[in-house]
Amino acid sequence: MKHKAGRYSKYIKPINYAVDLFVINAFALLLPINFFYPHLFLAYISLAWVVISLKTEFYEVQRYAKFTRVLSLIFQQFVFFFLVLYAFIGFFKQPNMSRLTLAEYFALTFVTISLLKIITYILLLRYRAFFKGNIRKVVVLGNNKKTQQLIDVFNSRLEFGYEFKKQFSPLGGDDLLRCFEYVVENDVDEIYCSIAELKDKELSELIDFADNNLKMLKFIPDNKNIFAKKLKFEYYDYIPILSLRDIPLDDTLNAFVKRLFDLAFSFFVILFLLSWLTPLLALIIKIESRGPVFFRQRRHGINSKEFYCYKFRSMAMSEDADKKQATKHDMRITRVGRFIRRTSIDELPQFYNVFLGQMSVVGPRPHMVKHTNLYGQQIDKYMVRHFVKPGITGLAQTRGYRGEIETETDIINRVKFDIFYIENWSLALDLKIMAQTILNAIKGEEKAY
Length: 449
What we know:
Layout: H1 12-30, H2 38-56, H3 67-91, H4 99-131, E1 136-141, H5 145-156, E2 162-168, H6 173-185, E3 190-194, H7 200-212, E4 216-220, E5 232-236, E6 239-243, H8 252-288, E7 294-300, E8 306-312, H9 335-342, H10 350-355, E9 360-362, H11 369-378, E10 391-393, H12 395-398, H13 408-423, H14 427-443
Helix pairs in contact: 1-2, 1-4, 2-3, 3-4
Keywords: Membrane, Transferase, Transmembrane, Transmembrane helix
Protein name: Undecaprenyl-phosphate glucose phosphotransferase
Pfam family, one: Bac_transf
């Protein structure tokens, strides 16, 4: 068996750990925080940093990771570091510690480590693209649309650091042997193969070869439904189990981060925006038409539980409000209602739903109970949307699928975007969707009526 000389980038993670630990300890010693037990404090923050980073996977940035992934990791790491940092005062009875200086310490560590992480990420991309360093040699087994797309990625995204060497196709006994010989002779690091072009025997031979020669083996999924999903691999005792859907928000840490953000953001909107906007709009709405200021409607939330979703009333009162969705040139919409619907101001009371935990700032938009019952029977995977809390805005809405559902294609595409969001949630994705929502509201949208 051939022994590999070493793992790639094996020094990057330890160096990053060492530098970051040096930064958090150095600033703690330089600033006048007034702690009684400096050694205890240094040990506490160092241990806390390591434990949090293991949980958030702060140092697990793959070479193909997007920049938003880096920003998300930074945010998650420092949210928990902030909480742990101030918990030291209560845990160890430190009444004389300067809260202000502790805040300065947190700000310095946040800025310094964030800059270091971003600079390291960018430098590694440049290093791979321009200096051909930190490179992994790869071969591809198979010849189809997906393997060609992967090869195009290897050849065009030089910053990922993959050097495409050769493609083997079609697969057969002799072709597989030639591939094995080539991999050994050219010191290839990773093998990518198409599942659709492998027989069971060939797959077994390929796995044995990769294991015995310490080569990384990765599979390109075929068109079968099971391989088109984002699978989750787990062990029940010693039995491997594949789950067809991995939902990031099922993780307690992710759910806590999202809820913390929802609480903070909704509280800010309620306190600084709705506190003065509500009485102003209430007066205008009351002057123009009879009826309540707020319109509430039963909708389905997480796990299909019903709740009342709130809006500023934008239509004249009618008996079929819970059954009929708004359409273009809808005669029920008032003059002020047309304005607040076009600017999405009518949705702002839903921040009360967010604060109460019934909704999230970002998530699949909740539908009327009538439509949920209808689409749940007609549209494949529609009910998957209810694995998470509904949102004031969502990925589907930023991609043009908001407002009235005119055709079956509208709801099918909306469901696809919602499922993608559920399976790929990150705080960075939430922030991106929120930013896009604000831009769309400023520019105006065709279906904002």
